[in-house]
Recover the amino acids of this structure.
């Protein structure tokens, strides 16, 4: 493969645009990612920043889901207690109690997933 600028043998490929580059075109050979120009370096940095923003939003979404699960689990547990004292239906008591357990377990899972992402 030939370098896109110098028509010499290429030793790497730009990780942003995919063009072949030779040893003269590489500005920093020890960099973790090789780019062919300043524009590609800026584009790569912009992509990295967008990826970090997406990861941060993902963590926020996991935390919001955990809060929602805890809230709904608490409401389901309260409904199970109310059903215990006010309604003679064992199905309703078991159903709302089981929903509370599942929702609390989901909240714990979302909390652990949000901590793992950080």
């Amino acid at each position: 493969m030939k370098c896109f600028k110098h028509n010499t043998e290429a030793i790497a490929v730009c990780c942003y645009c995919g063009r072949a580059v030779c040893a003269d075109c590489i500005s920093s050979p020890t960099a973790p990612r090789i780019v062919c120009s300043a524009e590609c370096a800026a584009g790569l940095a912009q992509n990295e920043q967008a990826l970090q923003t997406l990861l941060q939003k993902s963590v926020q979404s996991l935390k919001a889901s955990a809060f929602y699960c805890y809230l709904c689990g608490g409401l389901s547990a309260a409904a199970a207690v109310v059903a215990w004292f006010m309604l003679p239906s064992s199905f309703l008591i078991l159903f709302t109690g089981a929903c509370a357990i599942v929702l609390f377990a989901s909240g714990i899972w979302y909390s652990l997933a949000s901590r793992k992402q950080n």
Remarks:
- The chain has two helices and two strands.
- The first strand starts at residue 12 and ends at 13.
- The chain has a mean pLDDT of 89.
- Residues 59-117 form one domain.
